[in-house]
Amino acid sequence: xxxxxxxxxxxxxxxxxxxxxxxxxxxxxxxxxxxxxxxxxxxxxxxxxxxxxxxxxxxxxxxxxxxxxxxxxxxxxxxxxxxxxxxxxxxxxxxxxxxxxxxxxxxxxxxxxxxxxxxxxxxxxxxxxxxxxxxxxxxxxxxxxxxxxxxxxxxxxxxxxxxxxxxxxxxxxxxxxxxxxxxxx
Amino acid sequence: xxxxxxxxxxxxxxxxxxxxxxxxxxxxxxxxxxxxxxxxxxxxxxxxxxxxxxxxxxxxxxxxxxxxxxxxxxxxxxxxxxxxxxxxxxxxxxxxxxxxxxxxxxxxxxxxxxxxxxxxxxxxxxxxxxxxxxxxxxxxxxxxxxxxxxxxxxxxxxxxxxxxxxxxxxxxxxxxxxxxxxxxx
Lengths: 185, 185
Ligand SMILES: Cc1cn([C@H]2C[C@H](O)[C@@H](COP(=O)(O)OP(=O)(O)O[C@H]3OC[C@@H](O)[C@H](O)[C@H]3O)O2)c(=O)[nH]c1=O
Ligand SMILES: Cc1cn([C@H]2C[C@H](O)[C@@H](COP(=O)(O)OP(=O)(O)O[C@H]3OC[C@@H](O)[C@H](O)[C@H]3O)O2)c(=O)[nH]c1=O
Description:
2 copies of one chain form a homodimer. By secondary structure, chain A is mainly beta.
């Protein structure tokens, strides 16, 4: 079984985690998030206040690209996703992208200001994530179109065949996104 | 869609939560844990430091009855479980039980000292929970036999047909369990 391991990416602060998964005759068990071990390896002590889960009935369901003003620790409870990120923060790395396939043995820390998205690769995929601020209804945050040509995310399932919300179909292209300013401290 | 609602039980501090589940063409979305709303309704502000997930390949996988010295916020990411609890704390309610079926629309707060267990009712069930202290390898905590006759949990799938770990098969009966003392403050 693999050791817990953290990997940095081209997007500053976006960290890919490789999780040990203990298999036995019943199935498997994983520490999906473990504050002490992960902070010890360099993960920010992000202090989650909310755990969201989304169920995707069919392969191809695609959500994003969403930039909320909080950090996200994203993972998969069952199934697999193709996950992609676009840096939407003011600065030199605005527009930088990263993508990775996420099964139950991977988790990703997505810092505030980085656009988050995923496409379900299997029917019945459940995506589970922790965030460190509370979502409130009626607030709009910067979002980017899944089909943006400058980000050019290589979606495994063509977007024309994907299940996408009305809201996400209406998201603007990168040139029309207002970069996210750093958090006031 | 149901409103978020908390329900008390015969075990002091054991709280059953009914969660709103937003359905749409992609699948569903839920706030599985939401600190502000839930604390506002009376849930302890328990401060999770670890998120565990267990995958149960087959209907009948049964785990428990485990009492660790920390609180648990238990839920299901996909599938269904029959979940049961036995109060293992010193005092008047030692031995009190509660059980409920848990699908994606239910979560349960299990206070420190209450034995936790579940039986998967569907193949591929994923159980996800948050805890407020870190598990350490090699530590043994009070556990109760799933077949204990005084607790008499009405498992939907007979234990003789269930997938159970070697460790759980060796757990003692209630008369041989040392009640858990209150946390030193
Ligand atoms: C994010 C969020 C949503 N909701 C509700 C609003 C809708 O009724 C429903 C689905 O919301 P969407 O915004 O359509 O969710 P989705 O497209 O899945 O995007 C979410 O998942 C990917 C994440 O990047 C992003 O934070 C989040 O918006 O859930 C809540 O009740 N609480 C929440 O925290
Ligand atoms: C609880 C726990 C376990 N593990 C490892 C040890 C084993 O290799 C594997 C499975 O552990 P078990 O103790 O067999 O898990 P399980 O029988 O599923 O019980 C767990 O789920 C139900 C919970 O009530 C209980 O806290 C927990 O022990 O995972 C970890 O790495 N971290 C943990 O936090």
